Amino acid sequence: MSRLRSVVALVRRKSLRTERYSQRDVRACFSKYGAKTKEEIAAVIARELRELAPKLPGKRKPWKSEDERLWIFDAASLALTFFFCESRREEE
Fold it and tell me: 23-30 vs 38-48: helix axis angle to the nearest 10?
């Protein structure tokens, strides 16, 4: 069983609330900052959550693979997208 399927099975057993966000959702959340790429979104997060700033990798060179530290910013972008979407729902 894949890791994702294992997580989904655990969530169902525990009856936890889940949300799904697409890349488009995340980009929409950060568009108000003018951030479109993963690197730009990570830079916004580093500015807003200063504790993460030291983890922000430098600009990626075209011949290099993505820095492994970006997963921290991926996780933070999902959390912030959740809060952004929740606040929009409450306003409606």
Answer: 50
